[in-house]
Design a protein that fits this description.
By secondary structure, this protein is of the alpha+beta class. The chain has helices at residues 6-12, 45-48, 59-77, 80-83; strands at residues 3-4, 24-29, 33-40, 86-98, 106-118, 121-130, 133-146. It has 4 helices and 7 strands. A hairpin with a 2-residue loop joins strand 6 (121-130) and strand 7 (133-146). The radius of gyration is 15 Å and the shape is globular.
């Protein structure tokens, strides 16, 4: 099974700690689908204040994790010359649903799929799981733009 480690993901994405949320990408089908892992820890910056006595990963960061996984899938699949000096920006989020709270310490598994692309605009969908229990789902779009 082919997978990208966090160090390989760093080469594809502009995100850095503490905002690089995905830890690995595997089951990669070029420009089509992949599975990502987010290690949600009690020490993660986003759960320390959300909420101190009942830590939960914020839903907006689950959506950000979806976006990072999709950006890594896309960057990995494109010819490097096409992707070099580009950034991927989130354009819109549709149908985001949060079914269960994501509580540390767990592995959040993101199954993402590219639905379609038109030029520089891509549409994706994803489902998030912890121990095979669905935690969230979303449909979102992103665009590839030149770095400025």
């Amino acid at each position: 099974m082919f997978k990208l480690t966090k160090q390989e993901i760093i080469k594809l994405l502009p995100h850095r700690e503490p905002m690089l949320l995905i830890d690995e990408l595997y089951d990669i089908k070029k420009l089509s689908s992949a599975t990502a892992v987010v290690n949600v820890k009690k020490s993660s910056f986003y759960v320390q204040g959300h909420f101190p006595d009942n830590p939960v990963m914020p839903g907006v960061l689950i959506v950000e994790s979806f976006g990072q996984a999709a950006a890594a899938l896309t960057a990995h699949g494109l010819d490097q010359s096409t992707y070099k000096n580009k950034l991927v920006f989130l354009m819109g989020v549709e149908k985001a649903r949060f079914r269960n709270p994501v509580i540390p310490d767990c592995k959040l598994i993101l199954k993402i799929q590219a639905v379609r692309s038109h030029g520089r605009v891509w549409k994706y969908k994803g489902d998030a799981f912890v121990d095979d229990k669905k935690m969230a789902e979303a449909v979102w779009s992103a665009t590839i733009v030149d770095k400025k």
